[in-house]
Write a structure and sequence with these properties.
BirA Bifunctional Protein, domain 2, Rossmann fold, 8-stranded mixed beta sheet, 39% helix, binds adenosine-5'-triphosphate, binds magnesium ion, EC 6.1.1.21, cytoplasm, HisRS-like_core, aa-tRNA-synth_II, nucleotide-binding
């Protein structure tokens, strides 16, 4: 049998040519989250399977169809399909909830779901997400939504619609479930098999079914907003007030139920129309019951997760700016062993200052070294030939302009190079114009 050495379906390689795009999103996400007081958390890639069954919910697509579960010896593990369960588990296990509240953490991680791969839908994908625990107040919902919006805005994304909904609490949901059950019971013969089994246990899941027939049936189903209890209604109204106060545009979409069972009250999505059918770049909401469900003391909480691949697709389609890719600052061309050892010394000194410096590692001819320097797009070129080494006088060539600047090969070398590279001028000139 032929070896299959290709990457698995639904996975992607992130090559060096594209890494600056990822750095852009990661850097913006980190700095915006930190500006709201969120601290980074890192959790294991796999957890005990029960953790996800318990939190994400037995009747969700994720648990029923999409988890990557492995038996390792006698223990069953699951590759995380999302970040919330593991993060809350970690917050509990490390006693974060005994510290000052609210506790606010963010993460950048990969998730694994066995879905049908398509544009914006992968089997291994990446999320920037965060969780806030300890506040039941709608001002916290507004804070988290405003953080998500700040990330999207800072990335330069435009026209991303925010949809919000409330899916109530267990009290009001009981009434709603009755109404939903009655509605779908009357249309039972048209439901898909999965939804039939959801009818008793969790009829709200039918509204999230990806089958077109169930989707069509769900269109005229009763909406949760008509069943909210006073507490949930007030919460939802206050949230809208805060969003308006912050000038954050939103629409209410009573059909948003989210694909994970742990949500209560507020749910929200940021959606773009620029990348086709998988346009939800961010999904989140409140999950007031989850911490207790996972063995902690009752503690209200909320969060969101953004799909990084979908963010990047949208940024590309909108022509957003990315951080400049790094490139070589200086290539030192050499002609003999004496040149190589001097190149090593200078390279190391400049590297300590943070410059990207290279010299020949392949025993190449001078001509091929020039070709290589050109290929890697070095900003400056320094030739260390016999003449330069003997006289101690070299020339630094600006590869963009062709301009040559004389440089002494002595103790002033690092400072002189730094000045030319950073300011395009010489020490002497700098002294004249400094204040
Ligand atoms: P969808 O409705 O698109 O299936 P979801 O409700 O399953 O999304 P969440 O579990 O809320 O998504 O995950 C949060 C975000 O992670 C999504 O909004 C999306 O941007 C991203 N995401 C989810 N699943 C995938 C996937 N298979 N591939 C790429 N990104 C994904
Ligand atoms: Mg999904």
């Amino acid at each position: 049998m032929a070896l299959n050495l290709k990457r698995p379906n639904g996975t992607e390689d992130i090559t060096p040519a594209n890494i600056h795009k990822w750095y852009t999103v990661e850097q913006v996400a980190r700095s915006v989250a930190q500006s709201y007081g969120f601290r980074e958390i890192r959790i294991p890639t796999f957890e005990n399977t029960e953790l996800f069954q318990r939190s994400v919910g037995e009747t969700t697509d994720v648990v029923q169809k999409e988890m990557y579960t492995v038996m390792a010896k006698e223990t069953k593990f699951t590759l995380r399909p999302e970040g919330t369960a593991g993060t809350i588990r970690a917050m509990l296990q490390n006693g974060l909830l005994n510290e000052a509240l609210p506790q606010k953490v963010f993460y950048l991680l990969s998730c694994f779901r066995h879905e049908r791969p398509q544009a914006g839908r992968l089997r291994e994908f990446h999320q920037f997400g965060l969780e806030m625990a300890g506040s039941a107040e709608p001002v916290a919902d507004a804070e988290v939504i405003s953080l998500a919006k700040a990330v999207l805005d800072t990335l330069g994304l435009k026209g991303i619609q925010l949809y919000i909904n409330s899916i109530g609490c267990p009290t009001c949901r009981a009434e709603y479930h009755k109404a939903l059950r009655a509605y779908f019971e009357a249309r039972k013969d048209q439901l898909c098999d999965t939804c039939l089994s959801r009818l008793e246990k969790n009829p709200m899941r039918i509204l999230d079914c990806k089958s077109p027939i169930c989707g069509e049936l769900g269109k005229d189903a009763p909406v949760i907003l008509d069943y909210l209890c006073e507490d949930c209604k007030t919460h939802f109204e206050k949230l809208q007030g805060y969003l308006k106060a912050m000038d954050i545009d939103f629409s209410i979409n009573p059909k948003i139920v989210r694909g994970l069972d742990y949500y209560t009250k507020t749910v929200f999505e940021f959606v773009t129309t620029d990348i086709g059918a998988q346009g939800t770049v961010c999904g989140g909401g409140r999950y007031d019951g989850l911490i207790e469900e996972l063995g902690g003391q009752h503690q209200p909480a909320l969060g969101f997760a953004m799909g990084i691949e979908r963010l990047l697709l949208t940024m590309e389609s909108q022509g957003c700016d990315f951080l400049e890719p790094n490139h070589c600052d200086l290539y030192i061309a050499t002609m003999d062993p004496e040149g190589v050892s001097r190149a090593m010394q200078y390279a190391n000194l400049l590297r300590q200052e943070g410059f990207w410096v290279e010299y020949d590692l392949l025993g190449r001819s001078f001509k091929s070294q020039m070709k290589y320097a050109d290929k890697i797009g070095t900003s400056y070129l320094l030739v260390l030939g016999e003449n330069e080494l003997t006289t101690g006088n070299a020339n630094l060539k600006n590869m963009k302009t062709g301009e040559q600047t004389p440089l002494l090969l002595d103790d002033s070398f690092v400072d002189s190079f730094t000045n030319v590279a950073m300011y395009g001028m010489f020490d002497g000139v700098m002294d004249e114009i400094s204040f």
